[in-house]
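Write out structure tokens for histidine kinase.
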Amino acid sequence: MTVRREVPLRRSLLVRLLSISLLIVVCAIVTAAWLATRGATRAIEQAQGQALSDDAQVYDTLVGYAADHASWDGVDGLLTELAGSTGRRIVLTTLDRRLIAQSSPSDQPLPARASATVDPLRTDPVLRPSTSETIDARAVGPFRLTAAERDQLHIDAQAIVRCLEGRGVRAVVHDTPSGRPVLNAGDDPKTQEHLRSSCSSWLLLNHTPTEARSFAELDTAVNDCLRDRGLPGAQALDMFVWRPHDGAIAPSAEHIDECVAEARRRQLQPFVAPAALLFTHSPSTSSRTEFALSDDDVVRIIAATGLVLAVAVAATTLLATRLTRPLRALIAAVRGPDGRWTPVPATRRDEIGLLIAAFNDLAARREQAEERRHRMVNDVAHELRTPLTTIRSWLEATQDGLTTPASDPALTALLLNETLHLQYVVDDLRDLAAADAGKLRLNPEPVRLADVLEEVVAAHSGAADAADVTVTWWTTGSPVVTADAVRLRQAVGNLVSNAVRHTPPGGDVTVRGGVDAGEVVIEVADTGTGIAPEDLPHVFERFWRADKSRSRETGGSGLGLAIVRQLVRAHGGEVEVTSTPGIGSTFTLRLPATDTPAP
């Protein structure tokens, strides 16, 4: 069985484990980043909202101060109070950044950009989004009522309130920045009708002398502005309200509004503080935003953490199940009730699949080795049983007095041959055991191939003559091989002996040597019975014989060819065989050539 070694990258167990780990890590990172971003964004929004609210409070308070004072003198105490309530450092400077006042001294430089410009005549719509009027309502300037005018209007207002209460209408009096009292009785139509038709409410609608004088000045300034623009004048309808005069050419409402705003600013300018730059910032040099997690944030974090944990546990469980299922199958196969390995289907294409295939291959080779071991034991027992039985039978006959070695010389020869056969089997088994254990000792040295072949053929000439088989040898050139001369003679001798045994009388055995493609080649060819094609793969197996009846008529231990292969491989070579039934066989040994001359 061949186990495929390559695993596609997409099916690799390592890639899958890394993918699952990366997925869990990415989910954890994304979740943590999302929670951190959400928390930080919420904290920043809250901090910015609080800072904007504090800045708006500071700005509105300072605009009110500027609207009610002609200068910034005495604003220090107000800045200190605002700094204490908002926790921010407040600095006022002129438009050219000369210090006017600050809530607390500091070496910290001012920001490059001011938080706002404090000017009651041109308010910031961002910090005061609730009104579209750019001139602060608290900037009244010459329209501020005198004490006498305020007192008289309050007397009139109280009288109107009592009158309305007598009619079942509840009204509240509050003062405007100029000191004028205003009634607030709600938006009910009946209440508004009472205000217009009874209780002398018109007393609060008349202009006081201060207001009339200031309004007249303003009206003149508005019309002067329109005429400077080449436009006809406008008619005043009410406080700060003008409309164009009837005529073909009349100023637009936009022009009138611009002139009203310009005239009001010129009129109010002497009564308000000059424009100033406002700087508000944290008194700490650290720019970090400190925040604490809310209960909702804690719940979200716990929920997200639990979700990531659940995903991680589910992914790990799924992966562990997929990994351990084939491993459990392997364990069950190893612990089979009959002690035999049951192949596990290798359906996976990852490392686990390779492991299963390797186990199946190992188990198959183990069973084959076990079968070879049993077969080898049986073959060894068979090889030893025959000579031992023969020796025992003749020894028992001698003991019973039926024959004696002295009276029967053939008996002595027979017992000697059987003993030699036992010796051959034992020696061959010892050589194979040493080769299998890697303990086969070799003494390599440069050897003339012709000398080896001559000695082998001479050693087997007697057996060849007895079998009426002709053995010849020759070499092409003078090849030299680095080898253990004794072991090389043993290998070639086994092939020659095998060829003589399987060649019928009158046949030929040819031993040839030479060099081919950088290798020393030794061929032993015979004209024997040959080997069937289906038997060729088994000829080098131990105790294998083409004669399935295990007849020992041809001699041999059944280990010679196995020893040849082990000896040749120990020399770094290889042995192969070709055969044609009825014509003969050729065994070829290929050994590495050497340039070292033989002694």
